[in-house]
Amino acid sequence: MTALQLQSQTTSKPNEFCITADLLIPGRGKPIHNACIIVKDTKITHVGPADDVLAHYSELPKTHVKVLMPGMWDCHVHLVGIHKIASDAFVQAHQSPVLSGARTARDCMLLLNAGFTSVREMAGYGIQLAEAIDEGSLVGPSIYSSNCIISPTGGHADIHTLHRPWFDDACAHGMPMALADGVPECLKVVRSQLRAGAKVIKICGSGGVGSELDNPIDQQFSDEEMKVMVEEAARARRVIGAHCHGKPGIMAALHAGVKTIEHGSYIDEEAADLMVEKGAILVATRTIIEIGLKLGKGILNPRGWEKMQTTAKAHWEALQIAIKKGVTLATGCDIPGSIPGSSIFTYGVNGQELHWLEKAGLSPLKAIEAATANGPLTLGPQAPKTGQLKEGFDADFIAVDENPLEDLKILADAEHVTHVWKLGTLYKSPRRPISSL
Ligand SMILES: [Zn+2]
């Protein structure tokens, strides 16, 4: 029986059950030993020590697991089905949306299989994929998408190697990128994303590594352009996430009121202090940088490889500074697709971001918080009530077969994820792995 069939069987009567765990990691706060969680339909109705509550719920179906924790969040994905690393990383994004969608269907399955019950998509086909997942046509996480990435002409999300009319034509046919220059166009482009169903707005605050001609250190949108986009998004209760490597773009984005800094490669002490003061969140995406370092040599052109190495070095220092200064972190990998057969450039290993955060100085418990409770914060007022094992929260949680507080690397290996529940429905168990669906 598939998870979807199981779901349709259980929708007719209240779905109430109990899970006991040797260890429960709540997402925020202290772990509980010998814990119990009660779920009714899509919500968590009780969390606590098993001894206190089991007697009241003796009639409920029970499952015992080793370690229970919230379903993880990847706060920076691109569901676009890109299959290779390139100096102009967006160049494949103009492939047919049908091909992208077909490739991405498997990526969605890999995410859920690896324990990721939610993703924030920072440009891609997530809005359409979310519709297919929510109606039951596809298996995957809950997706909160920005729709397009918004860039100034010549900026990080302009495809410099394409003739402009080709670029415009690809955008008109669904490629998830948009260009805007000047205040009126910036207002209009934000409204266009809202019209498409965006839950968050993604802009380019600086140049990039995977874009041919720009410099990661340079600021892109002007202070004024960023400010009006933040204000326009806020009127619709959306926040902005800004792609920012260089410090000028980071500072301008923070002063404009941007909620999340993506990458943050040149954060120094002053920038980290401003992030803390503004309550901004860093989505560092160390994973894609490590992938670039592993696979980029000889594939990227000399300028792209040079940018990759320089940015990677600065980024590692910046991440350590941000952690030391107490900047709020949320995990995000920036993976744009899965190369068949690759164990490096693929969805399903997204949990490795936690390992990188730990290596840069974050405690394992805080790294798990970055991958669970902090995920929804990156959506501001659009945040769903999930990411924590807490009464009244969505029943999105996973079980793992070893204690991740002793070895975070297990969260990067789907084999260790024994169970996945999303909105109270069991999608994966040892008897019924998702990959058999
Ligand atoms: Zn990205």
From TrEMBL:
Q: Name one GO molecular function term.
A: hydrolase activity, acting on carbon-nitrogen (but not peptide) bonds
Organism encoding this protein: Zasmidium cellare ATCC 36951
Entries under InterPro entries matching the protein? Amidohydro-rel, Metal-dep_hydrolase_composite, Metal_Hydrolase, Metallo-dep_Hydrolase, OTAase-like
PANTHER family cross-referenced by the UniProt entry: ALPHA-D-RIBOSE 1-METHYLPHOSPHONATE 5-TRIPHOSPHATE DIPHOSPHATASE (PTHR43135:SF3)
Query: What protein name is recorded for this chain?
Result: Amidohydrolase-related domain-containing protein
**Pfam families attached here?**
Amidohydro_1
High-level lineage: Eukaryota, Fungi, Dikarya, Ascomycota, Pezizomycotina
Which Gene3D superfamilies did the record assign? Metal-dependent hydrolases, Urease, subunit C, domain 1
Residue span(s) of domain Amidohydrolase-related: 67-425
